[in-house]
Amino acid sequence: MDVTMDKAGRVVLPKAVRTKLGLAPGTEFSLEVKGDQLTLQPKRPSYLKRKNGRWVWDTGEPMDPDVISRHIEQLRNDRIKLLAGLE
User: Fold this and answer.
1) Count of CB atoms within 10 A of residue 18's CB?
2) Are residues 2 and 38 located together in one domain of the fold?
3) Which residue of 2, 21, 44, 76 lies most exposed, with the fewest beta carbons within 10 A?
4) What is the C-alpha separation between 20 and 15, in angstroms, rounded?
5) Tell me, what DSSP letter sits at residue 61?
6) What's the total number of domains in the chain?
7) Percent over 90 (pLDDT), the chain
8) 55: helix, strand or coil
């Protein structure tokens, strides 16, 4: 995938990449330079961990089931809007 830097030094990440990685405006990244290679990695809170290819919330503490249900419902609604082209 190719992207182009503008005069101000900005590079736009394609929407498919932002969606796949769950990136939103304001996401912070760490930048590593090795030779002529750049690596951007989203800074994730320590309680958000990747397990079996999926991001999971792991605070080490049990969460309130009602909070989890509301969060899942909100994510479903957001996904439906995205797929329906309403967002």
Assistant:
1) 14
2) yes
3) 2
4) 8
5) S
6) 2
7) 39
8) strand
